Structures are given as structure tokens and as C-alpha cells.
Amino acid sequence: MTDTSINNQARAGAGDAGFGDYFALLKPRVMSLVVFTALVGLLAAPVNVHPVIGFASILFIALGGGASGALNMWWDADIDRIMKRTQSRPIPAGKITEGEALAFGAFLSALSVVMLGLAANLVAAAILAFTIFFYVVVYTMWLKRWTPQNIVIGGAAGAFPPMIGWAVATGGISVESVLMFTLIFMWTPPHFWALALFMKSDYHEARVPMLTVTHGRRATRAHILIYTLLLAPIALGTGFTAIGGPVYLVVALVLNGLFLKGAFDIWRRDEAQAEADGYRAEKKLFALSLVYLFGHFGAILAESTLAQFGAQFGLGGW
Fold first, then answer.
1. What pTM was computed for the model?
2. Which of 41, 124, 207, 209 could disulfide-link 162, Cβ–Cβ 3.0 to 4.6 Å?
3. Residues 73-111, buried b or exposed e (16+ Cβ, 10 A)?
4. Is 115 helix (H, G, I), strand (E, B) or coil?
5. Long-range CB contacts for residues 31-34, cutoff 8 Å, separation at least 24
6. How far apart are CA 191 and CA 200, in angstroms?
7. What phi and psi values does residue 241 have, to the nearest 5 degrees?
8. Cβ contact 230:259 at 8 Å
9. For this protein, what is the EC number (predicted)?
């Protein structure tokens, strides 16, 4: 299929978009992570937030995250048409035009930032605005197609939501919110590199300089292990701060032990072994990485809930 026929097909399909197609532009799976980590940041903060303000703030943070996804799909429409895992997205599928995605993403970006500033405070709104800018301009437009460090540096965009949630409650930034940011920031490279190992042809065909393309798969396996080794002490150290505690430490010990083992298993393998079993270890680590992040932030949320329960009923130790 030629580029011309693809464009004609896209124009022919445009206008048939429904609510589900526009919702897909928001990258709902990514948005769920944004919402969850922002909510944990908000609830873990040492300041109570009125439920209405909290709900509105999380809603606008979600819209900002979705706006970033729509603008990412607008800019990446050309490579989304090439990569197998993205060909069903609304733009390459011909449901929504690139111009419509741009207008939709820009509108939601402005709306989310302004409304978060009105609902919460200017610090939270400023961090959200910077997050959208970083993801769309710094990562999508620049880093993604320029350097194999795209995921390393660009991972900061996905690490900001808990800081935004914390800022909604406190109006500022603290050691604890920076630790939550760092946890996601260091988790992102092994998470995406594990995916890149078994999505082997997509990044090559789209000419995206993922580490697997520029430095090879052996180097990628080594980088996954190195970043996992760097991630573990950060994750465990968080347990000894105000947002940590015994529940968090138990969860962190188990998950980091499993994650380290998975990274080591991947490092020991070569491509022949991986291809022989259909990249089973790589897919297992990718799935574990999702459990890893939700588990750590779920434990932070549990510690916050227990602390509030203990304060309410005069219990010590929480």
C-alpha cells in the first residue's frame, strides 16, 4: 500500500469517528497509570484535600495526560502507520485526521492546565503544563527520533504525575514527591526496553532509534540489568521515608527481588534462546514491570491509609 493510498483511506474514513475513537486518542492505558500515581501522590501528602477539589484535580490531571497522548499520536502518525502494534490507532486507522487530533489535544491541554490552576493551585498547574510540554516537545518531537536515550530522558514525563498530585495537596515539592518521581523515572527504561526486545521489528521498520536498534540486543539486556540494579536501592530506600513503612518495605523487598531475578535472567540469555521460547522471559519481565510499579504505589497508598487510620483512632506506630 502506497503513502498516497494510505492518506486517501485516512481521509475517506475521517468523520466516522465516535466517542471511542477520541477516547483512544487519550491513550487510556497510560492515563490509568497517570491517574493512579497522581492519586497516590495526592493522598500520601501530609495535607488533607477536600474531596471535591481532589476529584476535580485528578480529573484535570487525567485530561492533561490524555491531551499529551493525543498530541503524541498526532506527531507520530507516520510511524504509527508502520508499527504493527500502533496501526489500529484512530489516525492510522483512518477514523480521525491528524488535524483533528492536534486540535483536540491542544484544546484539552489548555483546558486541563487552566482548570487545575483554578481548582487547586498554580504550582500544580505549572507542573502539569511542563509535563505536557516535556512529553510532546522534548520527548515526542525531539528525543524519540534522535537518540537511544529517548526512553531514559523522556521517562521524566511519565514520572511527574505523583509530584502534581502532591503539589495539589501541599502547594509545593518535597523529598517524598521527588522520590516518587525518581521511582517511576528509573523504572521506565527497563520497562520499555523489555518491550523493545520482543517487539523486535517495529522499531527497526519505523526507524526509531531505540537502544535495541542503535546498540544491539546484547547491550539492551545489559542496560536493563544495570538500571534494575540502580532502581532497587531507590525503591527500598523510599521505605524509610515519611511515605514508607513496614507494609511498603515488605512489598518492595518481594517485588525488587523478583525484578532483579527477571533482569538477570534476561541478561544471561542470547537471541537464539529468546527466539526459541518466543521471548518468554522478556515478556514475563515486561508484565512484572507493570505489577512492580502498581505494587509500590499501592503500598505507598496503604501506608498513607494506615497512618490516617492510626491518627484517627490514636494508634501509635503508623
1. 0.88
2. 41
3. bbbbbebbbebeebeebbbbbbbbbbebbbebbbebbee
4. helix
5. 31/62, 31/65, 31/66, 31/69, 33/158, 33/161, 33/293, 34/61, 34/62, 34/65, 34/158, 34/161
6. 15
7. -105, -175
8. no
9. 2.5.1.141
